[in-house]
Every structure is written in C-alpha cells, then in structure tokens.
Design a protein that fits this description.
Strand order of the largest sheet: 1-4
Distance between the termini: 39 Å
Strand content: under 5%
Shape: globular
Number of strands: 4
Helix content: over 70%
Largest sheet: 2 strands, antiparallel
C-alpha cells in the first residue's frame, strides 16, 4: 500500500507536467486545428531559461523562494512571447493554406528550435543550480516509507492554480468566450467582429507560457536540462491531450494525470523500459473504444 501511495504521488507530479503541456496542444488544435509539433520545444526552452536565470542570480544573495518565483515568471513570460512570435511569423500567414503546410511548418519550427538551442547551449545535459528547500531530502513524511517533497507540493499547487485559472478564464470571461466562438467557426467569428488574429496570438501566448512554466518546474525538480528533453515529454503530453479528447481543456488535464500515473506505475511495478509500451498501448486502447477521447465530443464546440 505504501508503494502504491508513493507511486501515485510521483505519478501526479509527472502528470502535472504533462497536463500543463497538453493544454497548449489542445488549445491550439481547438482554435486552428493545428497539431503544433513545436509545442514540446517551448517546454524545453522554459527549462533552459530557468537554468539561465538561476545561474545568473544564484550567487546574488537573493532568497531561494524569490529566486524560484523570478525564474518561473521570467521563463513563462519569455516562452509565451516565443509562442506569440512563432504564431505571428510561421502560422498566421498560413491560416488559409492547406493543413499539410501548417503541419510541415510546425515540424520545421520544432527542429529549428531544438537544434538552435543545441548550437547555442551544447548537446550534453546541463545541471541546474541547486535550490536547497527543493531537494529530495526536504520532505513531509506521510508514513514510514511515503514522502511528499516540498518540490512536489509546489508543483501540485502551481499546476492546480494555473489549470483552475485557465478554466475560469476560458469559461467565464468575455475573451474566453471569443476563443470558444472562434473554435466553433472562424468565419462566423470574423462576421461577429472578433479579432481572429489577436485571439489566435493570445492562445499561443497562454499555451506556450504554460509549457514554459512546466519546463521551469521540471528543471527545478530533476534538475538538469537537454535540448531534446521536449521531444518525448511533448509526445506524451500530446498523447494525454488525445486520450482526454483533443480540443477539450478538462480532457487535457485528465489525460495528463492519467499518463503521469501510468508512467509511474509502469516504472515502479514493471520496469522503466515498459513505460512507453503502457502509455501508447493505453492510447491505442482508448482510441479503439472511444475515438474522440475520454471527454471528447465534437471538437468544433469547444476550445
């Protein structure tokens, strides 16, 4: 029982990363029907930005808590700006082009970001400066063998707050309503006076910003970064969005948690080598039984 509880806590931690990244996939797909293959790279960029901020400020005498907040805010803001720039330069000019053009552009952008980072930062793993209170030694002892680290507690808290805020924003605000309207019919949204381009840019800003936040927390939790770290995590986050029902925000959250738990249980009870077999086998099983995902309905009705 203790093992199961520890694996569950670990799975929820990883699931928080997947859920935050999956939200970006599902929002962009809901708005312009694009599978943004570059989205996992925004996560990677967030990790490197955290590394840069921590390296720059770690010896400045700033309190550790403030340092972590500065890294989170800076990485979120810059990756959000990167998402806006990518939408403005790469995707908006292709809105009326065939979907294949958008997909190929997304692949090209992904490779450009990955290998641009490799050229500037190197191809090896880079260590992130140590933050004392986030180390594995600092934990709440729940039972004799079950521990909840302060890093896990922080990841849970930040993720829940961000997901709740996003859900409220999309469902309860005027801007959120314009996003849902755009997801239903882009031409009708234009006729209603909605600024389509601005709404798309806002979607990329939020999605990429969430990926940057996840990348920062990942870098603080493990703590190392590499230019390819966004590939596999992005692929699993996309799987989470599909399992939950791509285009559906609660579905992306649920899918992220499911993938995180599956990964943790597979690693703990079987072997880490079987993780991808379990995760992607589950994806196939879900799609066979429910092709639109667990919470999926008609994508055109949701963001």
């Amino acid at each position: 029982m203790n093992e199961f509880l520890q694996y569950t806590l670990n799975g929820l931690t990883v699931g928080a990363f997947y859920a935050l990244v999956a939200l970006g996939y599902t929002m962009v797909y809901g708005i312009i029907r694009l599978i943004n293959f570059a989205h996992g790279d925004f996560f990677m960029v967030g990790g490197f930005l955290a590394l840069g901020v921590l390296s720059l400020l770690a010896n400045g005498g700033m309190p550790a808590g403030v340092l972590v907040v500065v890294a989170l805010v800076a990485a979120t803001a810059v990756t959000g700006a990167l998402g806006v720039a990518s939408a403005r330069i790469v995707y908006l000019p292709l809105l009326k082009a065939p979907q294949l053009s958008l997909l190929v552009s997304a692949l090209g952008l992904s490779l450009a970001v990955e290998y641009g980072t490799a050229l500037s930062q190197g191809t090896g793993f880079k260590s992130v400066p140590h933050i004392g209170f986030l180390s594995a030694e600092n934990a709440i002892q729940l039972t004799d063998s079950v521990r909840l680290t302060y890093a896990q507690l922080g990841i849970f808290g930040v993720s829940v707050v961000l997901m709740a805020a996003l859900f409220f924003f999309v469902q309860r605000t005027v801007t959120g309503t314009t996003m849902r309207t755009l997801a239903m019919d882009q031409d009708a949204a234009r006729l209603m006076g909605i600024n389509v381009e601005r709404t798309i840019l806002l979607t990329f800003l939020i999605g990429a910003g969430l990926a940057g936040t996840a990348g920062t927390m990942y870098a603080l939790y493990y703590p190392q970064v590499n230019f390819l770290m966004g590939f596999l995590l992005g692929l699993r986050a996309f799987t989470a969005a599909v399992i939950g029902g791509i285009g559906n925000i609660p579905g992306a959250m649920v899918g992220g948690v499911i993938i995180g738990l599956l990964e943790s249980y597979a690693t703990g009870y079987v072997s880490g080598r079987w993780t991808d077999v379990v995760v992607f086998g589950t994806l196939i099983a879900v799609l066979v039984v429910r092709p639109s995902g667990l919470l999926g309905e008609r994508v055109a009705e949701r963001v």
